[in-house]
Amino acid sequence: TYRVVQDLNGQRVAMSTSLKYGLRGILPAIILAVVVNVLGLIPMGGIIASVITCIWFVAAPAAVAERLGPIPALVRSAALTSGRRWGIFGLNFLIGLVAVILMVAWLVPMISEGSGDLEGSMRTGGLVLIGVLGLFQLFSGIVAAVSYALLRQDKDGISHEELARVFE
User: Which are the contacts of 48, defined by CB distance < 8 A and separation ≥ 6?
Assistant: First the structure.
């Protein structure tokens, strides 16, 4: 029984360590989301928001991998994305375009169907929409993490193996 308790305790330590390092990326992500959404409320703010998104694109992975606070992570992201922002913009644009195409391809038949149970189809549609948006957010997070690794390799000469040691 001692070994079982020891194994469970080791798993708790590993989980708490993972949460501690993983949660470092939340504050930079929240800052980016707030800034982008506030800028979206002003005229021509969407253009500024897309530029800021390209600058701070890898802030959350930088915060986790390099154990940075929110502001240093945003500064580090700006340094890493320098010279690569048009590519990042194109990547974000393509991901957004695919999301819009999939949503339109799904919504148009649902709206034109004109089923008698409008409330039920709207409820189902809302749940599917939330699921699709969640999957695209997950995919975007993976794209940001892979972009971070590639930017670190390009700018700092760090290999994937060296980068993976951060999580040991």
Answer: 39
Confidence of residue 148 (pLDDT cuts 50, 70, 90): very high
pLDDT tens column, 109-123:
666 665 556 666 677
**C-beta separation of 153 from 160 below 8 A:** yes
- Given the structure tokens 């649902």, which residue do they identify? 110
**How far is Cα 30 from Cα 146, in angstroms, rounded to an integer?**
20
Residue 58: closest CA among 148, 142, 133: 148
Q: Contact 58/149 with Cβ under 8 angstroms? A: no
Whether 66 shows a pLDDT value over 50: the answer reads: yes
The closest alpha carbon to 80, from 150, 7, 168, 159, belongs to 150
Q: What is the signed CA dihedral for 48, 91, 75, 148, rounded to 10 degrees?
A: 170
d(CA 45, CA 97): 19
Torsion angle, alpha carbons of 67, 53, 88, 166, to 10: 10
Q: What is the DSSP letter of 42?
A: S
If you average pLDDT over every residue of the chain, what do you get? Answer: 80
CB 45 within 8 A of CB 39: yes
Contact 36, 52 (CB under 8 A): yes
